[in-house]
Write a structure and sequence with these properties.
This is tRNA-(Ms[2]io[6]A)-hydroxylase. The protein is mainly alpha-helical and about 190 residues long. The chain is built from seven helices and no strands. Helices cover about 70% and strands about 0% of the residues.
């Protein structure tokens, strides 16, 4: 369904398990950034009522996920560390088109968002199937389902709101680009790292 070029090596979970506090902190901040991204889409496209309604719902869900991760951190006696840079997301940002109409920019932002959700969904699947901690396995399975829903929402809106862009062609370009950069990741105890 996701069409990603490179699957995450399940051995990545061994890295994650070596520092659960780090993956949970990174994950919490990923959820906060996802909420902020949805709010940014609302800010720049407030005239599209259907989009605003759905992005506000996604922002709410992402903040709920942030709270859920934070609750796990607290329950385990761990500490929510400082916000981290997400180098993977920053590399994806470089691929976003900087020219074209507002509608073109919206569509590329939606594809960018779909790409992040697709990779997060894939990583959560790997975690849910390979992590030794039963509580976290179930948690990541549930979040995988939510991320898949966000992925399809972003992709669907990109298709709906395109003007002159071949969204399927542009999505393939995103998939190719992501495939070229993801080879640098999967070596750290972070969601995209």
């Amino acid at each position: 369904m996701l069409g990603l070029k490179l699957a995450t090596d399940p051995r990545w979970v061994n890295i994650v398990e070596s520092n659960i506090e780090e993956i949970l902190t990174d994950h919490a901040w990923c959820e906060q950034k996802a909420a902020s991204n949805a709010i940014s889409i609302v800010t720049y496209n407030s005239e599209i009522e259907e989009l605003v309604t759905e992005m506000l719902e996604i922002a709410r869900e992402e903040l709920e996920h942030f709270q859920m991760v934070h609750n796990i951190i607290k329950q385990r006696g761990l500490t929510l560390g400082r916000e981290r840079k997400d180098h993977y997301v920053n590399e994806l940002l470089k691929f976003m088109k900087k020219d074209g109409s507002r509608r073109d920019a919206l569509c590329d932002r939606l594809l960018f968002s779909a790409m992040i959700e697709a990779r997060s969904c894939e990583r959560f699947k790997v975690l849910s199937e390979n992590i030794q901690d039963p509580e976290l396995a179930k948690f990541y399975r549930d979040l995988m389902i939510s991320e898949a829903g966000h992925y399809t929402t972003f992709l669907g809106f990109a298709r709906k709101y395109q003007d002159n862009i071949d969204i399927d062609k542009r999505w393939k370009e995103w998939i190719e680009y992501e495939g070229s950069i993801i080879t640098n990741y999967g070596k750290n105890e972070t969601v995209h790292g």
